[in-house]
Amino acid sequence: MKKLILQDPKFGAIYNNELNKLQLTYSGLPTYYWFKDTEKNNFSGDGIGNAWSLILKDIPPTMLDGLAESTAEYK
Questions:
Q1: Among the listed residues 71, 39, 69, the one whose alpha carbon sits nearest the alpha carbon of residue 52
Q2: Residue 22 or 63, more confident
Q3: d(Cα 12, Cα 30) in Å, to the nearest integer?
Q4: Which of 42, 37, 47, 40 is nearest to 68 (CA)?
Q5: Which helix (H) or strand (E) is 6 found in, with range?
Q6: Any idea where the domains of the chain sit in the sequence?
Q7: Origin, by domain of life (predicted)?
Q8: d(CA 51, CA 29)
Q9: Beta bridge partners of residue 13, listed in sequence order
Q10: Intra-chain end-to-end CA distance of the chain, in Å
């Protein structure tokens, strides 16, 4: 995490009380991973349920509507 933050000032960290640890942020927004993306360069979670989007270099984060009910089919 420290290496990412030093390489790109858009990355940062916040303390997540639920996880009881630091959480990586991008442009002030918390980051997450899609549980089905288990391989390198696997981005199948991009756009799922209109809630997840990739972090793309030099492009502002995409603000989506949030978790849609359709994400239930992916659990």
A1: 71
A2: 22
A3: 9
A4: 47
A5: helix 2-7
A6: 2-74
A7: Bacteria
A8: 13
A9: 24
A10: 27
Phi-psi sector, 3: left (phi>0), alpha (psi -120 to 50), beta:
alpha
**Global pTM exceeds 0.90:** no
Q: Distances in Å between the alpha carbon of 74 and those of 11, 39, 43, 46?
A: 28, 17, 14, 13
Residues ≥6 apart with Cβ < 8 Å to 66:
50, 51
CA distances from 21 to 27, 39, 42, 56 (A): 19, 24, 26, 25
Give the integer Cα–Cα distance in Å for 22 and 45: 23
Q: Which residues contact 31 (CB under 8 A, 6 or more apart)?
A: 23, 24, 25, 55
What digits encode the pLDDT tens for the residues 15-58? 999 989 999 988 888 888 888 888 988 888 888 877 778 888 77
Element (H, E) at 5: helix 2-7
